[in-house]
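Q&A log
Question type: sequence-to-structure
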Amino acid sequence: MTTRGAGAAGRGVRGDLFDPHCPTRQLLDRIGTKWTSMAVRTLADAAPDEVRFAELRRRMPGVSQKMLSVTLRSLTSDGLVSRRVEPTVPPRVFYRLTELGLSLEAVLAGLRTWAEDHMAEIERANEDADQETGQG
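Response status: OK
Response body:
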């Protein structure tokens, strides 16, 4: 069963990607980023242990502090990651995947594997398309 409105998805009814008002589209935008995939993978590798913010940043080459913060805030808001703060100075912040987040890791792992396995083919196709465009 699919929904025909944003409200239905909030009530536990399956979403519908093709419905322009369904929040499934926004969810896919959030979970489909490289930073989300890297953060989920890093937290899955550590599961069931927690990982501090600074350690996550070290394990994710190229991510800025701001982008990691935005990514973790989104994952936490979606219930995929839990956040724990120790009231020290400065505060120590820890993250771990929830059960829902662990279920997402299995899906993202397949997508990452596909991308890594087919990257050379994709690059060749892009080069071919660039050459065709340059000749046209």
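Response note: The chain has a mean pLDDT of 89.
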